[in-house]
Design a protein that fits this description.
The complex is a heterodimer. By secondary structure, chain A is mainly alpha-helical. Helix content of chain A is 79%, strand content 0%. The longest helix of chain A is centred in the middle third of the chain and has 31 residues. Chains A and B meet through helix 1, helix 2, helix 3, helix 4 and helix 13 of A and helix 1, helix 2 and helix 3 of B.
Chain lengths: 430, 155
């Protein structure tokens, strides 16, 4: 049997049998190593090599940041700020939902955390205000995927670290499409609000807006730190992440004092177990990715695609279709780790800029977080809204369509993604 | 078995908390030293990497006990086929854990002879987290099997 087919096929069969993703990566690699008569010590060697990266250290810190934000009052402050800014538009709570996710996304890179924290507050509120539970669940789930696209995004860090692309440029590239998708979601909410007569929250007055802004200000400094620091090159992503963590710790435990200091060990432990899961997968992908490269998967897939079409746009559309399919079963980090050589192979063939390719890949994979069977954000939101997964799925489809449409649009208007990175990193675009 | 593993889990979680707290401090110190004090430290990146590996592999063992790893649920949960994944997961788990443990020790032994230049300790400390993680996972897997056996014995 073709070893490459055995590797990828074996992986998907194991995953289907509910073997966890990290174990499936290692196990399918072990089988191929045995068949190919390669030494098994390389499993451990490659696992270790994959996590031996200072850039990856940003991942635990951003996940810890998410934990701190949720434990304290920072999420609530951001909600109040969103309420005061966009709540008075028709379909108010829906806009608040999108807006707060967008801001939350700029603070930490975890989509599922955002669904759980924002959803547990806003979904019940939306239901009470007369929104259909399915719509509330769909919007909450969809808006939290913004965390994957808008920096600091854990997926973009992993993509940059393993794909050798500037993380600063990827971060900047994620801003405009992320905000565009958020605006599209808000426009859709507005239409739904007109059709179903969803209410607006009365405008609280300029004074209340001012107060909410001051109260939320200190937290809003975090994205300024992170993006500003990484783009100007003052900070590496890891340094930016740790600075943001230290600032959030000072805010939560010293300035706001809304969480007692004795809860800190529990927060540390919880964050540590949180990030060990994706990073164990990163380690497992070490040997798997090495085999993918060793067996020449990228060349084979590119050859195959070239036999279907040689038109760059056609190739990219095929890639988008492939990523949508992969995204339905794999979470974005696993998908990037496993298929990066193939994604980059197709990107090179279609002559797409590496920054553009990275952001586009991330946008398309983010959709997988709200499509079954691995639509973790939709699952969480549907559970909070107490609505069947099927109805939540139907409600989320139009939003999925919008996101994919924006990804495809970027193929024809690359500056949707590249305009800002070009300005900040002109030397990458010659 | 469960009682023993509960104690083990508590110890490991305590170690994780310490290791992660130390990681935050070490990297925080590094940023401070480089950007504010302008004195780059040579030992912080290696120590950070060491702590990072321990956090990941010990954390992964705890996540294994709590069934926290990424899984894809497309297999039917009822009917005659429902039991297959358990057996596959068990056999697969034994192999993966065996590789982590056996080849982890192998790798650790090779690393033992090298000394990390900036920390002055043997590189064994970098790799040994992997076989330890495998050992912990083996204990947790055994617990699961024993629980299932005793459950089917009482039925």
């Amino acid at each position: 049997m073709n070893p490459l087919l055995l590797l990828i096929g074996g992986f998907f069969v194991l995953v289907a049998f509910r073997v966890n993703v990290g174990f499936s990566l290692i196990l399918s690699s072990v089988i191929v190593l045995l068949v190919e008569d390669l030494p098994l010590t390389s499993v451990i060697n490659q696992m270790y090599r994959n996590i031996d990266s200072f850039t990856l250290l940003a991942v635990p810190f951003f996940m810890f940041l998410g934990r701190i934000l949720n434990a304290g009052s920072i999420t609530n402050r951001l909600l109040a700020l969103s309420n005061a800014t966009v709540g008075h538009i028709r379909g108010g709570l829906g806009h608040v939902n999108v807006f707060v996710s967008m801001v939350f996304a700029s603070l930490s890179g975890s989509a599922a955390a955002d669904t759980a924290s924002v959803g547990s507050i806003l979904i019940p509120a939306m239901k009470k205000a007369g929104y259909s539970p399915a719509f509330a669940a769909a919007l909450t789930a969809a808006s939290s995927t913004l965390g994957v696209i808008i920096p600091p995004s854990i997926i973009l860090i992993v993509y940059g670290a393993f794909g050798n692309v500037s993380i600063g440029a990827l971060f900047l590239g994620g801003v405009v499409p992320g905000v565009t998708i958020a605006l599209a979601m808000m426009a859709y909410t507005y239409l739904m609000a007109l059709r179903n007569d969803y209410p607006a929250i009365p405008f609280p007055g300029l004074r209340a807006l001012g107060r909410a802004t001051t109260r939320g200000m200190a937290a809003m400094l975090i994205p300024v730190f992170v993006l500003g620091g990484v783009i100007t090159g003052v900070f590496t992503p890891t340094e930016a992440a740790i600075s943001a963590v230290l600032w959030a710790l000072i805010l939560t435990f010293i300035l706001y004092r809304d969480v007692p200091l004795r809860t800190l060990p529990a927060l540390l432990a919880a964050a540590c177990i949180d990030f060990s899961v994706p990073l164990f997968t990163v380690a497992g992908a070490g040997i798997f990715g090495w085999l993918i490269a060793y067996l020449g998967a990228a060349e084979i897939v590119v050859d195959f695609i070239r036999s279907v079409t040689t038109h760059p746009t056609g190739m990219m559309l095929l890639l988008i279709g492939f990523l949508l399919l992969v995204g339905t079963v794999l979470n974005p980090i696993s998908a990037v780790l496993i298929f990066l050589p193939i994604i980059q192979g197709i990107g090179t063939e279609a002559q797409v800029n590496p920054v553009h390719l990275g952001v586009l890949t991330t946008i398309v994979l983010s959709v997988g977080l709200i499509t079954p069977p691995y639509g973790i954000c939709l699952l969480i939101a549907a559970q909070i809204a107490q609505v069947s997964l099927g109805r939540a799925m139907l409600a989320v489809l139009p939003i999925v369509g919008l996101t994919v449409a924006i990804a495809i649009l970027s193929l024809f208007v690359p500056d949707l993604i590249l305009a800002w990175p070009k300005m900040a990193f002109p030397n990458l675009f010659n | 078995m469960r009682a023993i593993n509960d104690i083990i889990e508590r110890i490991v979680v305590a170690l994780l908390t310490l290791a992660f707290a130390a990681l935050v401090c070490v990297v925080g110190l590094q940023v401070l030293a480089r950007n504010v004090l302008q004195v780059p430290m040579i030992w912080t990146p290696d120590l950070a990497q060491l702590l990072f590996a321990w956090c990941i592999f010990l954390g992964a063992a705890i996540a294994f006990r709590r069934s926290g790893h990424y899984e894809v649920n497309i297999w039917p949960t009822s009917g005659p086929l429902a039991q297959i994944p358990r057996s596959v997961a068990f056999v697969g788990g034994v192999i993966v854990i065996g590789v982590l443990f056996y080849y982890g020790i192998d790798m650790t032994q090779r690393a033992m002879l090298r000394t990390n230049p900036s920390l002055g300790i043997s590189e064994l400390w970098f790799f040994i987290s992997i076989p330890i993680s495998g050992g912990l996972m083996a204990l947790f897997l055994a617990e699961r099997v024993i629980a299932r056996l005793s459950r089917s014995a009482t039925q």
